[in-house]
Amino acid sequence: MTATTATAAPAPQKINWLLLLLKARTFVALILVLAYFSFAAPNFLSTANAVLVSKHVAINAFLAIGMTFVIITGGIDLSVGSVVGLCGMVAGWLLLNGIDVGLGWSIQFNTLEVMLIVCLVGIFVGWINGTLITRFNVAPFIATLGMLYVARGSALLSSEGRTFPNLNGTADYGSSSFPEIGAGSFLGIPVMIWMLIIVTIAASYIASRTPLGRHIYAVGGNERGAALSGVRVRRVKMFVYMFSGLMAALVGLIIASQLKASHPATGEFFELNAIAAAVLGGTSMSGGRGRIGGTIVGAFVIGILSDGLIMMGVSSFWQMVIKGLVIIAAVVIDQAQSRLQTRVALSQEAAASR
What we know:
Strand 1 and strand 2 (about 105) form a beta hairpin.
């Protein structure tokens, strides 16, 4: 008599709806804020307001993209708001004064040259942050907090606290197109939105399609393990802080060209919006996890929330409270998602070992 053993078919895995909901929290938040302000705020869905919101979102998104890379590596950049102000002042100085070389001569710059110099300033500030963190082992929080004060103080010193007005450029120097950076449009779409599209595509490609992107995630997931596997951790960290500085420089240029003026206080608290957008978009504060697409959606949530509250006449004090609560809620939800993912992974391993 032959004994046969019947193999039971594996039970279908149960879909963890809570985990799916946590992963999709950014889209859920976007739908909720859109639905709420569509009814609560007058003219919220008008074309003019949509264009205005998109411009505000773009400013947050540039900074949030750079912040995403930094946070994925396990770091933080608190200096981006001050770098925005500093780079705006550099742009104003170059347009109005140029560079004095003595003997009554000065070097004047066209729009592209101003943009290049300002971007180099932002990258240089990011290089200083990266050097402090990688070479001198200064904690990212302390290094970038110190740079926040240095950059803001430098912006104030550049004009003794005054505004650089009338940044219309000069046709003779080829700088009359400067206001087009923030106020111009191409094919009916603001130039700054085209810039954001290009930056988003480039950042997404770096994050998902290049060895550098894999190294950024590896450093944030396990820095020691990444170093042992041959990843040049210092270079990766230098890149993310320099990239964050570049994003801040672009925002400084955009705001100065929009207002046709630059003020040293520009960019105050911008770092909070950038962190909020990145974390709300699914970037883990503990590092190793985050997506550029999620960050863009997070920037939309923060931008729509800010503009909607303004249209409803909510006090700026309450706006700060609400943004702070959004950041706290995003971090709490991120931690809950991490714990739930760990629990699901352990249960799957236990089921597989039976």
